[in-house]
Structure formats: structure tokens, C-alpha cells
Fold each of these.
Amino acid sequence: MNQEARANKFSLGRIMVYLFLSLASLCSLFPFYWMFVMATRPSAAYNSIPPTITPGNMLIENFQKVLNAIDFFGAMWNTIILCTVVTVVVLLISSLAGFAFAKFKFPGKNILFVSILLTMVIPPQLGLIPQYYLISKAGLLDTLQGVMILSFLNPLGIFLMRQYVSGSVPDELIEAAKLDGCSNFRIYRSIVLPIILPAFATLGIIVFTAVWGEFLWQFTILRDPDMYTIQVALATLSNTFNIDFGMILSGVFWATVPLIVIFLLFNRLFIASITDGAVK
């Protein structure tokens, strides 16, 4: 009886956990569903009481309004280039720096690492004016290079890579490679890089989505409509007194689709990184 009671209790506890997780998932997904619903409805449905929760038939019509108002695909292409370049460079720099901080000894290592981490507590708005001045003096205003160059050094990425390399790459493996005559870069390329691939996926998704959704710096630097990213281009849709919410949310919906595709492509590596940390 005791075993049967424990089994029933365990089953009931598992059911409660699944119910809670299902409810949390629905709450997390509902804003995306509501955005899709509004993208298929006229603007008046945005303020309707009771709220509209069923999709309409104006998705293509609202998106056509977006295409007539802005260069949607041009802005999307600029954003893809920006996010791809920043993500690749951040992954390279962060993994190299994380490898150095985790496995090498050099003077001032701890002070330098702490200094990099402290930059994460500084609000980005505080550096907006001096950063704009530097980019202006460098002649990079209205260019994607001016937007991306300040994003290459990512303190969070360096921290994540340092922690992952410390826990996943054995010191004995590196010492054995050095005895075989491998250079530091050969060790990074042949040993460290394959091991930290799940962390690469995790950091890549974080950086890609962060750059995709960033607005303030892009809006500050870019003034030429031909160089607009998707966030800046969508912001121009609301520069009127008569705001068409169906059109705006249609643009937002289609601008979100690439992020969903990126996550679906790399979610296995993302989950592998999480479960690997949990097992450790």
C-alpha cells in the first residue's frame, strides 16, 4: 500500500507539473498568437471590446500595406546581414577570449575579466552620445558598419564561453595536445571548438535575437532609408496621426518569422547546451 500510495502521489505530482508547464507555455505563446490575430484584422479590432481572439482574413492585405509604405524586404536584408556578421564575429571573439580566460595564466587576468563583466552593469543609453561621436568621426554614420562595430565585443558572450570552456574542456586534454606540438590556435580549432558547439548555438541565438530586436542604436545611426534595418523601418509606420495597427502588427509578425526559423534550426544544440550544464 505504501508503494502504491507513493506511486499515486508521484503520478499526481507529475501531472501537476505538466499542467503548470502547459499553462506557462500557453501564457508565453499567447502574445505571439494575439499579434498574428491582429495582423489578420482591420485596425479597429485593436481596441474592440470584448477583444478579438480569432484570426481574420486580412493578413495579405495588411502586409501589402506594409510593402507599399516601406522597403520591407530591403530592410529585412540589411537586418540579416547585420545580425549574421555580428553573430559570427561575437562567437569568434567570445570563444577565443573565453578559452584564454579559462585555460591560460597571464598577469592581470582576473582584473581584466572582472572589468569586462562590470561593463554589463552600465546602461547602454549612457554611452550613446560618446559612441555616436566616435562613429561620426570615423565616417560610419548611415552605414551598417557603424551599427555593428560596437557590438563585436560582448561581455555576456565572453562570460558564457569562459564558464563553458572551464567545465567542458579538460586541462589534461590541452596538455596532451601541447605535448604533441599543437599550437594554441590549433588546440582551439581542433579540440575546443568541437566541444563548445552547443554553447556556440546558445550564444548565437542570444546574440542574433538581441541584435535583431535592438532599436535605439540603429535608429540613432541610420538616417538613409536604403540602410534601414527592419526595426527602424517598422518604426516609420507609426509616424502618422492615424495609426493602422493591423498594418503595423502584420509587419511585426513577418519580421518575427526569421527568428522563429533560426530557433527551430538550432534548438537541438540550444537544448543540448542547457541539459549538458544540468548534468554537470
Note: Residues 167 and 280 are 8 Å apart (CA to CA).
Amino acid sequence: MVYVALLRGINVGGKNKIDMKLLKQTFERVGMESVVTYINSGNIIFIHDGFSKSEIAHILEKAIYEDFGMHIKVMVRSHDDFKIIMDSLPETWKNDQLMKSDVMFLWDDVDGESVLGKLVIKPEIDTVKYVTGAILWSVDKKNVTKSGMTKIIGTNLYKKITVRNVNTARKIYELMQTAQNQ
């Protein structure tokens, strides 16, 4: 089965630095196959059969600690999980000079539509959608500082999400589809 591991908080602002080539070797060491990394922010596509997503996440967190001495949270999503999110992502959403659009992937213990109640959403500025596994957010770049969504930073909920911009999410899905079709 094709999966992606989304690592939270690596190679951000000079903290938790992990070389992607070494990380790929770590994944292979613990039995993940056809491992592909995408950019430096901790996106690893791989194939594995035999364990649940939570078991795989535990194996990977332990291996990362063993190899790098860091406690890094790992979210594992299957190709099918990712497809649900990508099918809900409006094609017009971009991450460019005019628009900021993100996918906020949710850990299982906060995954539910009720999560929207924990957010500061300004409907006149923010476009926010819940989909199983994620919150989708888009805002005009000129309004980012006025957005209520930026208030999530530093909250307990923020510790239970990992964010990728829509361009990155789309590329991850493309890589997962390639792995699925091999």
C-alpha cells in the first residue's frame, strides 16, 4: 500500500535539521520500500504492507529517534486518505503571489468537523473547509495578517496539525499516484 509520512517541524527555522538522504535510509532500514522524499520539510512517500498507519507512525518515530536523536511526530496517510483531501481541494486554490492556500493535516485525535469551532474564522477574509483528515484554508495574500486563522499558532490544536501549502500537497499526491501505478 502507498503511504506518505508527514513529519512535523523538521528543517523549519534552522531547528530539527534532518538530511533527507539520511532520512530515506532510515525509512528503508525499518522496512519501507520505494521510498521517495519531496522537499526538505519532511514529506516521504513509500510502500509498505502489513502494519496499520498508527503502527507505521510508531515505527518511524522510533527509528527517527534512534538515528537522529529527535522526537519528531509522524503522521501517516494512505493514498486513499490523501485522495479524499485532494478531491475536496478547489482547483482554483493556489499558493502564489496573490493567494495563500494551505492543507492543515489533522492528527486522528482532533480529526472531526467540530475542530472548526476551535478556529478563529473571519468569513469575509478566510475560506475554510473541513474534510476528513484536514482543514483546507485559503486567503488573499493581502489579507493574511488580518486572517483569524493565524491565531492557531501556539495553541494546543496547532500542536496536533502539520501544514503543507496546496502546491506541496498536490505534488505529494502526484508522487503517491506514481507509486500507486508502479
Note: The chain has a mean pLDDT of 94.
Amino acid sequence: MNNRPFQRAKQTKVSDLIMQELESMILDGTFKAGQKLPPERELAERFEVSRPSLREALQKLAARGVVYSKHGGGTYVSEQIGSSFTDPLLELLSAHDEFLYDQLEFRDALEGLSAYYAALRATEADKAMLTKRYDALVEANLKEDASQESKLDTEFHMAIAECAHNVVLLHTLRGLCSTLEKSISANLTNLFDKPDARQHIMAHHKTLYEAIMAGKADEARAAVHTHLVFVEDNLLKIRHEESRIQRSLRRSENTMN
């Protein structure tokens, strides 16, 4: 039998605990990329620690590139958080219409899952935030402001991702947000030229919102699928119409020649 005394476990430093807490808050979306952190005094009071311990934690995060400081301007979450999703490949995908349907399929998978968990996990605070985003989208829809609708549409779907309380899912969707907004903007521009499309799309959002608020997970996921199938079907019809027009124009040019 080994009679050597047990070695005392290394005590975790206060600054490391603060660092872990701040990391969690960045991961769960409390603090977003590029956002300014609250003042040191406020953070120290929130964590009930000394300002030197807090400052040490921030220095450790800065050394790892998670946060950075502006001279006399406070501490900010790095803009590079989630930058692995801003690869030039995504810009290429968003610039080529032939990959639009691949994006819609990907959205169906991720956003359907996001809506499912949002319905199961949304807190009262989450629901208040989601309601605010939904109401803003409704207002823009009534004004028929397409550019504002595409922006608020993206924000509505990102709010759902926050309500899902899945950090990996949230940051995947957040990292793809710029590409997603371009996709939504392009889709709306095309679809709003069709009669009643705006009303159909808003009805889909209403069904999705109400399912999440009521905690109906399967209905929320189905609402996402219904919405994106509608978008895909109508975009295909538009493409086919454009193709017929182009063929007709080519025949006319050949006849004239």
C-alpha cells in the first residue's frame, strides 16, 4: 500500500473561473462578435470578484484572441469569432444561382432543427425577444419594404436559433448569417413579383412563430419545411418562365436574321 499523502489538487484561480464564464457567455450568444463588453466595474460586480481578477481574466482571453481592447474605449469580443464560416467559398456559393437550391436544402435541415428545439426550450425571455423580432417583420411586411423585410427575416430566423439553446447550431447559423441574408434577399426580390407571394410567406412565418410560442416542436419544424418548399417551388417556376422567355427571344432573333 502506498503511504504517500495525497497531493492537494491544484486550486482553480479566480481569474480562470471568470474566463470560463465569459467564454460561456460568448458561446451562448450573450456577447456577440464585435460587441463591446460591459465596463470592468460592472462585470466585477456581476461576478462578485475583484477588478484585478477580472482584468487578469480579460488579459488571458485577449492573449487567445477571444477579446481585444481599444485604448480608452473598452474591451470587445473579437470580430474573428465564427470567422471559419466566412470562407470565400460561401461568397462564391451566394453569387451563383445554380447553388441556390442547395442552400435551401441546407436551410431546411438546420432551421428545421433550430425551430424544433426553440419550441421545446424557449424561455419567457426568449419568447419576448422572438415576439419583438416577429412584430418588426410584420410591420415591414405591411409596408411592403422588401429590403427591410429581408433584413428582418434573417433576424427572425436568427432569433429562433438563439431560442434553440444549442451553441453549435447557433454559431453555425450565425456564421452563415451574411450568406443567409443574401439568399433571403434574392429569394424575396424574385418571389414578391408574383401575386400573393408576400402574403403566403408571411403566413408561413406566422405559423412558425405560433408553433414555437405554443411549444409545438414538430409543427415548428414542419412550418420551416413548408415555407422553404414553397420558396423552392416558386423559384423553380420563375426559372422555367425565364428559360421559356429566353428561348422565345432566341427564336425571334433567328427568324429576323
Note: Confidence is low (pLDDT under 50) at residues 1-9.
